Amino acid sequence: MDRPNYITPDGYARLRREYEELFGVERPRLVETISWAAGNGDRSENGDYIYGRKRLREIDRTLNRLSRKMKAAKVVDPAAQADRSRIFFGATVTIADENDNQRTLTIVGDDEADAGAGLIGWNAPLARALRGAGVGDVRRIDLPVGAKDYEVMAILYPAAN
């Protein structure tokens, strides 16, 4: 990766929990099932064995992906942001379009983005356009349906612990 993979402490903890659940609980249980199924004889028509091996490969791919993400992650705590007057990583931002339709979104790491929940990835076009903006600034975002202007109405950061 040529650019840092920023992630919030909560996002990193979620990746870690998923990894530990797969590695420590689901994978050992599946290995046990595969061993039991293999002991039942003919493996070519043994559904438990065939499905178990397939699922084990899926888990191993997921573990590999999670491991790479955690290794490349640069954990940034938004609560420690010194300049809270501008939009940086971890900011919760309220923006309004030309029709005064307001949206509130939080700029998070790309691995924890969920647009439906208002979590926008750091490298998403909207987040890139808003970076460094302050309250009252208007930013133009090129969308597939055309360019749209958004005004920054509010910027919030989590409270420092």
From TrEMBL:
Domain Transcription elongation factor GreA/GreB N-terminal: residue ranges: 5-75
Highest taxon, organism lineage: Bacteria
GO biological process, one term: DNA-templated transcription elongation
Domain Transcription elongation factor GreA/GreB C-terminal, chain residue ranges per copy: 85-157
Cross-referenced SUPFAM superfamilies: FKBP-like, GreA transcript cleavage protein, N-terminal domain
Keyword Repeat part of the UniProt annotation: no
A molecular function (GO) term: RNA polymerase binding
Keywords tagged on the record: DNA-binding, Elongation factor, Protein biosynthesis, Transcription, Transcription regulation
Record Pfam families: GreA_GreB, GreA_GreB_N
Coiled coil, from the record: none
Role: Necessary for efficient RNA polymerase transcription elongation past template-encoded arresting sites. The arresting sites in DNA have the property of trapping a certain fraction of elongating RNA polymerases that pass through, resulting in locked ternary complexes. Cleavage of the nascent transcript by cleavage factors such as GreA or GreB allows the resumption of elongation from the new 3'terminus. GreB releases sequences of up to 9 nucleotides in length.
Stated family: Belongs to the GreA/GreB family. GreB subfamily.
Protein name in the entry: Transcription elongation factor GreB
Biological source species: Sphingomonas sanxanigenens DSM 19645 = NX02
The organism's taxonomic lineage, starting at the top: Bacteria, Pseudomonadati, Pseudomonadota, Alphaproteobacteria, Sphingomonadales
